[in-house]
Amino acid sequence: MPVIRVRGLRYRYPEGAQALNGVDFDLEPGECVAVFGANGSGKTTFVLHLNGLLEGEGSIEICGLPVIKQNLARIRRKIGLIFQDSDEQLFLPTLIEDVAFGPMNLGMPPEQAAARAQKALERVGMGALLNRTPYHLSSGEKRRAAIAGVLAMEPEILVLDEPTTSLDPPGQRELADLLRDLPQAKLLVTHDVFFARALASRAVFFERGRIAAEGTVEEIVARFNWTPR
Amino acid sequence: MGDAAIERWSRQQSVLHRRDARAKIGALFAFLAAVSTTSPDSQIAFAGYALLLAAVIAAARLPFPGLLRRAALGLPFAAGFALLLWFSGERARALALLEKCYLSAAGALLLVATTPMPELLRALEILHLPRTVVLVIHFLYRYLFVISGQARRMRWAASSRGRLQFRSAAGALAVLFARSSARASGIYQAMLARGFSGQFPALAPPRWRAADAAFLIAAALASAAVRMAL
Ligand SMILES: Nc1ncnc2c1ncn2[C@@H]1O[C@H](COP(=O)(O)OP(=O)(O)OP(=O)(O)O)[C@@H](O)[C@H]1O
Ligand SMILES: [Mg+2]
Fold it and tell me: What domains sit in chain A, N to C, each tagged with a CATH number?
């Protein structure tokens, strides 16, 4: 059974743009899939549907659970979403509180949540900054913190929207190593072909709100000439 | 609020910072009640309240200038009414109005400058303030950072394109609000994605100690004493 199953997903923003136009997609357990596509092709809109933040037409199932109101609490603990913009993900006054926010929402007692948060921050190389205020970190540090915030929840599926943006090259390498070691199924929205090559076994290509092609990372990159140079 | 300095102060250490947020809220209410019911003519009582505040600021080891300056931010609003009173001949009441406003603002500022926001929200929740009110306070606080950050970035972007003044301040303001509200809804979505259900988790649940009760009683007695005696 796929961990993500999407059929015929369509969505139009209230302000007008038809952002998704019939998306069919499956993610198998343990698989890592790269999502490519031009700016504005609907990638972010797509991932916002996976845990019910946006509601379009069509059907989505996460680990067999349909994404409907009654299931949202369960679905949001199964699927960890790392946002394109880390500033949006951080909102509590200290890093440790922010990262512990997710585990606490799962009903975990405070000491256990704090311990998990600390572990997650150490995994992303931020163990020394526990009591810092997230709004005053560098972009790369914010990105790491946002990733820790989701790792701390230990979800079954990880969805990362452009995770390498503003990470320095060693940071990108460390993130790739970290993700490779995690057993979860992963969906990796990225413009970074190197990063996708390092992790993904399959790629899909978004075009005007649909998946226009899928194949290995190399096939997609070659077919759409998807390299910066 | 929405001010990095206050955020930083609220995380310092002092006897006052260590007090339970509920004790500080109670003390603030006692102080506000005393100030607001003081007769406009007893200037000496206002001096007494000011001394009380000064003692607490010193105990909290907060910087006087920064705190006193921020407490004055609300004065322009009160000044309108004070002017009306002044010109209708009620000079004592006009003066007292400004003094009461300033003292109350300084007192409230002392509460937020010695209590980290999550602790404060948690305390309000325990004190049975309606959840929606607590949430509104939290979001307001968070979004003030968002808006001030957004405004700063727009100012930088504008000035780095060689134009130090916005040509159309109204247009820029509209963009600022559109961006801030997009940002705000993004933050809310990210909170939902991490399982937020309207409940406020706190890492360290508050603990009421004897010192908290002592502080609350002392603050209430001191306020009452100034109110009665001076
Ligand atoms: N909040 C919104 N309101 C209205 N339209 C939107 C909104 N967000 C995105 N869109 C539109 O929907 C389309 C898809 O946007 P989306 O953010 O999903 O693109 P994307 O593939 O993630 O792009 P990028 O690579 O730049 O991140 C775009 O045409 C965009 O203009
Ligand atoms: Mg995007």
Answer: 4-223 (3.40.50.300)
